Amino acid sequence: MKENAVKTKLKNKQPVFGVLSNSPDPTIAEMCGVFGLDYYMIDSEHSPISPGQALDIVRACELGGITPLARIRSNDPKLILQFIDAGVMGIMMPGIKTAEDLQALVRAVKYPPAGDRGLGFVRMASYLQGPFDQKEYIEFANEQMLVLPQIETKEAVDNLDELLTVPGIDGFVVGPRDLALSLGYIEGPGHEDVKRTIARVVEKINQAGLVAGTTAASGDQAKALIDRGVLFCLNSIAGLLKTSITEFTKKRVI
Amino acid sequence: MKENAVKTKLKNKQPVFGVLSNSPDPTIAEMCGVFGLDYYMIDSEHSPISPGQALDIVRACELGGITPLARIRSNDPKLILQFIDAGVMGIMMPGIKTAEDLQALVRAVKYPPAGDRGLGFVRMASYLQGPFDQKEYIEFANEQMLVLPQIETKEAVDNLDELLTVPGIDGFVVGPRDLALSLGYIEGPGHEDVKRTIARVVEKINQAGLVAGTTAASGDQAKALIDRGVLFCLNSIAGLLKTSITEFTKKRVI
Amino acid sequence: MKENAVKTKLKNKQPVFGVLSNSPDPTIAEMCGVFGLDYYMIDSEHSPISPGQALDIVRACELGGITPLARIRSNDPKLILQFIDAGVMGIMMPGIKTAEDLQALVRAVKYPPAGDRGLGFVRMASYLQGPFDQKEYIEFANEQMLVLPQIETKEAVDNLDELLTVPGIDGFVVGPRDLALSLGYIEGPGHEDVKRTIARVVEKINQAGLVAGTTAASGDQAKALIDRGVLFCLNSIAGLLKTSITEFTKKRVI
Amino acid sequence: MKENAVKTKLKNKQPVFGVLSNSPDPTIAEMCGVFGLDYYMIDSEHSPISPGQALDIVRACELGGITPLARIRSNDPKLILQFIDAGVMGIMMPGIKTAEDLQALVRAVKYPPAGDRGLGFVRMASYLQGPFDQKEYIEFANEQMLVLPQIETKEAVDNLDELLTVPGIDGFVVGPRDLALSLGYIEGPGHEDVKRTIARVVEKINQAGLVAGTTAASGDQAKALIDRGVLFCLNSIAGLLKTSITEFTKKRVI
Amino acid sequence: MKENAVKTKLKNKQPVFGVLSNSPDPTIAEMCGVFGLDYYMIDSEHSPISPGQALDIVRACELGGITPLARIRSNDPKLILQFIDAGVMGIMMPGIKTAEDLQALVRAVKYPPAGDRGLGFVRMASYLQGPFDQKEYIEFANEQMLVLPQIETKEAVDNLDELLTVPGIDGFVVGPRDLALSLGYIEGPGHEDVKRTIARVVEKINQAGLVAGTTAASGDQAKALIDRGVLFCLNSIAGLLKTSITEFTKKRVI
Amino acid sequence: MKENAVKTKLKNKQPVFGVLSNSPDPTIAEMCGVFGLDYYMIDSEHSPISPGQALDIVRACELGGITPLARIRSNDPKLILQFIDAGVMGIMMPGIKTAEDLQALVRAVKYPPAGDRGLGFVRMASYLQGPFDQKEYIEFANEQMLVLPQIETKEAVDNLDELLTVPGIDGFVVGPRDLALSLGYIEGPGHEDVKRTIARVVEKINQAGLVAGTTAASGDQAKALIDRGVLFCLNSIAGLLKTSITEFTKKRVI
Ligand SMILES: [Mg+2]
Ligand SMILES: [Mg+2]
Ligand SMILES: [Mg+2]
Ligand SMILES: [Mg+2]
Ligand SMILES: [Mg+2]
Ligand SMILES: [Mg+2]
């Protein structure tokens, strides 16, 4: 296991740029690293990427110089385990509502005594053949993993003060579309009330000394977010393709 | 089998925009269609996409409204067959050097009497359950398939006049990097001699009433090519990702 | 997202014919559509078809003109999400026993305000690039999805009156073999008591104005069921192959 | 390696019933065995089933009690090798025209001294751990493999007398659709001239003491063929599904 | 479904040797059988092998003469179902702590009346086409399945007396590494206190007339364990490769 | 592209130890590297590993610190291309008989001017984004690739003197089993005549200053070979598993 470069940048208050990916193809991940993204967020909530596919994606990320992360469909400790044993270096968890949810998430991601993660003879642990002994590996792994719950429901916003106090969390990623739905705005996240809520959430996260993240569909959007205190900027494969295909085919429009 | 929208556009002298893809993931193909590309060129020469993977990609293309094509590693009629039986609507063939090569290519792509393609009870033929009877299907398929040999060697350039006369060819796609190597320019296709050669090849193709195509890494490059008579503009997945990742991460540079 | 043709037929009291499939091969699904079935029920309970495989099957169904549905192993909202985000247009849920089970199922399948389904930038939503805006898509999706719990335990039969009142359910599919086991008949569903129970369940479902479905291994069985008020007729891949292989090899027996 | 039950039946002049399959799903193969087919012909000509997929299909065949065979896209000895090393017990080869083609096919399928097949430490050879020593295994394998070239061109019909004399061939499978095309009948194999040609070919094959095979879409067609001297009856997955789906949905038509 | 040879050996107090595998490749499983292991434990806890992959592995095990078992990530009855319907003949369950956990596990593995397992028309049941009728199959399956919970937490050790009394359990497999962590020994299972605890656990299991199992990285370790009453000896793919690669490359060291 | 550590060792006359693998599972490759093998020879002759699977295996090799090589089924330049574009750092080619075969092999593996390999925008070339410009990459790649034809026929032995003079070859790997068959020894490679022939071949290879390689099933066999001038020692996955399973189960025998 190597140092988590994204975690290090975030500690240094540097923005990080990544993509939420619905593609199981490792080559896409490797290219995203070669062309300069910081992290590759395997989507295993709204996309059906399995832990077995994640294993091949993680290898491509390690070679492409991009940090592999995963969004996992539910707060199931053993489903989380299969992704982190494969080498995913952080978890984005949707649907978090309470401090108990968060504590369960932290316990799933960390080895004892910080959590309940089981230890296998796995690649993430270099089959215990690497430079580390078991104790060093466990402490290093517990330190390097990123834990990033999502704020995407009214309940989570209401409980935010308490959520911010749970130990072991690196930050929170706001999901604008589901948050808007949860606040009753079916048309999408464009309503002023949604924007104000998100701004307040980001502010509180920052005041707690944690990382704020959210979605950005372009460099300009990312810039605006960074100016407002967001460090974790999340595009999508669809967003990247839309940007460049629009550029590539512009001659057609003229 | 449906009408080949790319072939129709090319007949109408409209430029078409597509991507040479090294990804076996059907979802990438479907998104490329949703976001506006005209064709998806499965690379089965420099990328190891198999005919079986092509089948799933073709389905995604049909649903995404993008024409599936394939570049195939060699002029092997039965390897070509597996791609076109899966539903690929045209073939880009590398390494063509002689009129004999071209005639063999046409024979592989077309059913009798125009060629030697065998007829199976396959999805491309709608298991012979569709609106067409066998004769109608055969004639329609022979008409709709695109045949696009590559010009990428000195020999092909030398033989161009003869190549242009082979019946059943829709056009030629110039491969600048390999053509430069073949002409002795190991540094890449930037040398003036290479550019002049390519310009002359494009001109001759157009004079013969055929479609000229080549690679373009951006909308500006595509525009410049179209202005010089190129109708078939070919980007790559790497090119698309590089464009948009550079845009997305621009804040980092500042 | 397109109209759910099976839902429309059922609203018009027309019988629908489909297959519970244990095959992950999309081509089998496409052929089932070409040859005239109404729906393809991906079995992800007794067969291990994953959501990622379902994605390719769904595409094949859309092209083959057959409605993709899925039976999912458990009432886990995020596992259901991965299938419906892939494009499955309805869920058959085994093991339902109480109204609470049913309400949870409906919440998993429907977007707010009818349920809790999260909204991603996914293919089912055409990456929000289609003819619909978000509000229209959400309302249309909530309307088109089929929700079909199974009745296969004594508890479900005992609770049937209450189950029939839960909003958002389209009908119920009886599972004769497990129901027989639950009623104590280990030899199979052939006992008169099982048959009487099933007849009563179908009658009650129909009286409640809902769709009744169950398994049928042949056209004759389907006919008999339809005569008794069943509209949703469910064969299996094994059943289809057994029928036709028996027919094909009949010369051997003589 | 076990005895080839299909070869044994054919030696005893018993008809065998099988399916040309375009599905890579091993479960379909296993079910075809359970429900009574004699052989499962993996189509790797008009369908893109790879040798790696064949390996899993072969295992399913061995467990389902059905003999695995393969049609391979071209007479390439090393492509053939990958299928037979996986455990396929016979090869159907399309496009055979001359005695030289046939001799090359036999050399590819048989170990020295009968042919040129290379010997690896592979599963077909039980990793040389089975009851056989190397010599016994080689002799047994050479004996058990089925070699079944296709007759599907005018050239093959013209050369039939010579083809029938090549040692190491078990029989010939007539491909009616391609043969019709080759004879100039684009509408399909229904023309009297095609039928007469096929009848003559079957007669000659039988006179040479070899097995004649061809396609049959139903038990009635198979019966008619068997009555005319055909022993190797070949349906398709599409044919099987069409038969049973038509039967299953018959109530709809009424 | 065939007799479970491992269960039979264990009943006869014979030691069994197997491997916990993190490889989804069926060929590895088949070779492990050919070279003499008794069982192949598919790891679906610390490795991401899916039920769909298990299906192909199970077939390879059946042909290689090795009993397929699976460790499953959590005590989810429907996840267990997908593995046992594929043909896995026993379950090793991690993280068991209470008698309630164990009872739930037994109910998931056994058909009524012993448990709640649902009955499908699946390969494990030979599509109900085999020599058994449904009642015989159910009774045979309930009898042949192995149920092997893991003891790997302090809680499980504390509750051992009660765990030993739950009906339907064949034995317990001690997980030394996680047990050490749970007991507070982060350096690994080498501490005397851990060894003493394991020894006591094994003794109690044997006194209850059940099978004791644990991990062994070599034949010498297995021998030592067998001498202390362990019958179920579990190596890993990593362990096997390390042993033989060390042997194979020994010349390098000299 | 990185330095080829195996080529460097061979230049320094150090023995290298590797495995001919019939497994498509990347994890097996990664573990072989972690436990100390020098190279991983993907078998795509007697095993059906595809170029697409090779891509994932290559990534695992790069991370496991083991050099990825491939044996390819035939001397087809474009099939070779797909493996080397994926990142395989050398080719072992079976069935080589003449100097022309060898020259074709070298041309397939090397870029111009040394050969005819085409240049794509591929991962092996780091998408031309790495530290190298195109010219540097081409020269480095041509230098680092290993070219290892097999000697496994009487013809190759007869032509050896000429084969040894073809430029661009690193060495030759003797295939004892096929060589024995070709020399007329059907029982296997144990005959004295075969041994003498192999010894003579190894001697000649060494005299020509090239690397000699062959198969070895254990460390003792490897040692004996190294003492006789063999540097390239090739075991198999089957060989490794047999060694360690025999060791692990030794208690059973007693
Ligand atoms: Mg554990
Ligand atoms: Mg044919
Ligand atoms: Mg969300
Ligand atoms: Mg050989
Ligand atoms: Mg059921
Ligand atoms: Mg090229």
TrEMBL record, chains A, B, C, D, E, F:
Protein name per Swiss-Prot or TrEMBL: Host specificity protein
InterPro entries in alphabetical order: Aldolase/citrate-lyase_domain (IPR005000), HpcH-HpaI_aldolase (IPR050251), Pyrv/PenolPyrv_kinase-like_dom (IPR015813), Pyrv_kinase-like_dom_sf (IPR040442)
Phylogenetic placement of the source organism: Bacteria, Pseudomonadati, Bacteroidota, Cytophagia, Cytophagales
Spans through the membrane: none
Matching PANTHER family: 2-KETO-3-DEOXY-L-RHAMNONATE ALDOLASE, PHOSPHOENOLPYRUVATE CARBOXYLASE FAMILY PROTEIN
Keywords for this protein: Lyase, Metal-binding
Domain HpcH/HpaI aldolase/citrate lyase residues, every copy: 20-232
Statement: the UniProt record of this protein carries the keyword Signal: no
Highest taxon in the source lineage: Bacteria
Family indicated by similarity: Belongs to the HpcH/HpaI aldolase family.
GO molecular function ontology, one term from the record: metal ion binding
Entry keyword Oxidoreductase: no
GO cellular component labels: cytoplasm
